[in-house]
Design a protein that fits this description.
117 residues, mainly alpha
Length: 117
C-alpha cells in the first residue's frame, strides 16, 4: 500500500472562499448584499492564506500580493466605492495566476514522469 494522504482543510477553506468570492464579486455590481458577502469571503480567504503560510513556513512574495484584495475592501468601505472593484480585479488576477501555475506544475510533473500514485 502507498502512503495515505490527508486533505488540508485550510487549503479547502481558502480555495472555496476564493471561488465563492469570484462569484459574489461578479454579482456585487447588481446586488448590494453580494458586496458584503464578497468582502466577508475575501477576509476568510486572506486569514486562511496567512494561517497556511504560517503553518507551512511558506512566506513568498505572492502571498503578500494576495493581500491586495483586502486593501481594496478596506478602501471600499472607508474611502471610495472603487476599492471593491480593485479587490475584485486583484482576485481575478490571482485566480488566473494560480490556474496558470497549476498547469505549469502539471506539465512539469508529466515531463519528468513524477506520479503521486
Amino acid at each position: 500500500m502507498g502512503e495515505q494522504k490527508s486533505i488540508d482543510v485550510g487549503a479547502v477553506i481558502h480555495s472555496a472562499a476564493g471561488i465563492a468570492a469570484l462569484l459574489l464579486g461578479a454579482l456585487m455590481y447588481n446586488y448590494p448584499w453580494a458586496q458584503h458577502g464578497f468582502a466577508a469571503l475575501m477576509l476568510v480567504s486572506a486569514v486562511s492564506a496567512v494561517l497556511i503560510s504560517w503553518r507551512m513556513n511558506a512566506w513568498v512574495p505572492g502571498h503578500w500580493l494576495a493581500m491586495l484584495p483586502i486593501i481594496g475592501i478596506g478602501i471600499g468601505y472607508s474611502v471610495a466605492q472603487w476599492g471593491f472593484t480593485l479587490a475584485y480585479v486583484c482576485l481575478c488576477i490571482a485566480f488566473i495566476h494560480f490556474v496558470v501555475r497549476g498547469i505549469q506544475l502539471a506539465r512539469a510533473s508529466a515531463a519528468t514522469g513524477d506520479n503521486d500514485s
